[in-house]
Design a protein that fits this description.
Blueprint lengths: L2 H25 L14 E3 L4 E3 L3 E2 L4 E8 L7 E8 L5 E6 L3 E7 L2 E11 L2 E6 L3 E5 L13 E4 L4 E3 L5 E7 L7 E9 L7 E5 L3 E5 L5 E10 L4 E3 L3 E5 L1
Parallel strand pairs: 2-10, 12-19
Antiparallel strand pairs: 1-4, 3-4, 4-7, 5-6, 5-8, 8-9, 8-10, 11-13, 13-16, 14-15, 14-17, 17-18, 17-19
Amino acid sequence: MDMRTFKKYNLSIVLLLIIWSCNKSDNSKPEELVNNPIAAILTFPEDNTECNEGVIINDTESRVNFQWNDTEFTDNYTVVLKNLDTDIIFETESTSNSVEIIIERSTSYQWYVISKSESSDVTAKSDLWQFYNAGNGSVYYVPFPADVLAPENGSTISALGNKIFLEWNTDDLDNDLKQYEVFLGTENTATESLGFVNENKFEVNVVSGTEYFWMIKSIDEAGNISNSEVFNFLVN
């Protein structure tokens, strides 16, 4: 085989490999696009309100229809409901944008919805709402647990002169909040009480490089008490 024939032979092999590679690429299936579910928007029971709607079953229970907006790319929903008096959490499944749940009367609750898809492992969580389920002859309402304002939960902050302000917000249906008890510690139980205040702000001393845990006890004029979650922050 002379040099010219050898070059033509190699060129033919190269062209065949290119054609084979292109045909293989053309025959491959494109990856299937998977859409993740979208977070639901809650509609009822409304946030920080008294729920007077529902079917009364007896003196202690009623059936409430929880509702939210339909979301895209979602096959089913999970309603997560927390009894704020007992801290018991229970879940209810639904394939539509509403579900009826029997709950206790004269009781405060928190709830949110998780959107799920059969084609994706990713889930989406709605905002967290809270409400009071009305009962017979309610005169005083227990304050809702305090929500953190600052420092943001799980955040890392800088302290000015080794001092920071803890800030929070508490909703109360009958607007008779009296005072707050502030707890702060370096363990996640936050058991050390720093005392009582009449406003939703409290200045504390902190040490750089330390993680702190804190919570708020809200107290109204009737002596009703609610405890917040335990929040945490790190001082850099």
